[in-house]
């Protein structure tokens, strides 16, 4: 993989991503930029900074459970603590559970019997690494609805879209912050049409270089 470029968040310079220009495939799209989330998801100090920023957007939303996808559990833990401890939060002093659904070989989400009680009848916030086309977000929303949860908030590290249904997507990085970021249907990808081979495959955990 070529050398990446660090991009600092305009809302908090202590939060940064590393981006790699190229030709990459996700499970449902081709993109011209790989956004590495590794540092922000593993560096405790940066994860806390990200959680604090997202808490500022969610502190007036009553939340019982945070559902974490795409390796965001560390950020989710800091986010829950900030919402519970913050003096200006409607969740101050409340209990918030942080859970992650299981994913099967068909990429379907489910909650096991022990976790369902934290979703059914609860106000749920969804935390993701990346919202590109919105398909993964929609699948997660359907899962939460299936188990009887009430989706009240959406947060992400990066989002290329502004909202999902009636809910805004609270994010740290927007498309405009990354200079260039384009997503294409695999059968409409202009990079493929120009004969450019894939540089890597992107999944929730990162990128596999080809």
Proper CATH architecture: 3-Layer(aba) Sandwich
What is the CATH top level name? Alpha Beta
Stretches with pLDDT under 50, minimum 5 residues: none
Number of self-contained structural domains: 1
Helix content: 10-25%
Structural class: alpha/beta
Order of helices and strands: EEEHHEHEEEEHEEEEHEE
CATH topology annotation: Rossmann fold
Number of extended strands: 14
User: Number of helical runs?
Assistant: 5
Q: What is the residue-averaged pLDDT?
A: 93
Describe the structure.
It is a single chain. The protein is α/β, with parallel strands linked by helices. The chain has a single domain, classed as Rossmann fold (3-Layer(aba) Sandwich), CATH 3.40.50.2020. The protein contains five helices and 14 strands. The strands form three sheets. Strands 1, 2, 3, 12, 13 and 14 form a six-stranded mixed beta sheet that branches. A hairpin with a 5-residue loop joins strand 6 and strand 7. Helix 2 packs across helix 3. The longest helix is centred in the first third of the chain and has 15 residues. The chain starts with a strand and ends with a strand. The relative contact order is 0.20.
Present the secondary structure layout:
Layout: E1 5-9, E2 12-25, E3 30-36, H1 38-42, H2 44-58, E4 65-68, H3 73-85, E5 97-99, E6 102-103, E7 109-110, E8 123-131, H4 135-146, E9 150-159, E10 163-164, E11 167-174, E12 183-184, H5 190-193, E13 200-203, E14 206-209
Parallel strand pairs: 2-13, 4-5, 4-8, 8-9, 9-11
Antiparallel strand pairs: 1-2, 2-3, 3-12, 6-7, 10-11, 13-14
Helix pairs in contact: 2-3
């Amino acid at each position: 993989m070529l050398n990446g470029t660090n991009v600092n968040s305009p809302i908090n310079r202590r939060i940064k991503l590393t981006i790699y220009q190229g030709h990459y495939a996700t499970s449902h799209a081709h993109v011209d930029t790989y956004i590495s989330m590794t540092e922000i998801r593993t560096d405790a100090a940066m994860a806390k900074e990200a959680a604090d920023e997202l808490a500022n957007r969610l502190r007036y939303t009553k939340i019982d459970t945070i559902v974490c996808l795409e390796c965001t559990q560390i950020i989710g833990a800091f986010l829950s603590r900030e919402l519970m401890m913050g003096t200006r939060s409607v969740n101050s002093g409340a209990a918030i559970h942080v859970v992650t659904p299981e994913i099967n070989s068909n990429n379907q989400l489910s909650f096991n019997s022990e976790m369902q009680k934290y979703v059914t009848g609860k106000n749920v916030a969804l935390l993701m690494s990346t919202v590109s086309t919105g398909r993964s977000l929609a699948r997660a929303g359907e899962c939460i609805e299936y188990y009887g949860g009430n989706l009240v908030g959406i947060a992400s590290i990066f989002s290329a879209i502004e909202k999902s249904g009636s809910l805004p997507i609270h994010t740290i990085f927007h498309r405009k912050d990354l200079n260039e970021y384009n997503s294409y249907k695999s059968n409409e990808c202009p990079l493929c049409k120009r004969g450019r081979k894939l540089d890597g495959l992107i999944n929730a955990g990162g990128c596999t270089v080809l």
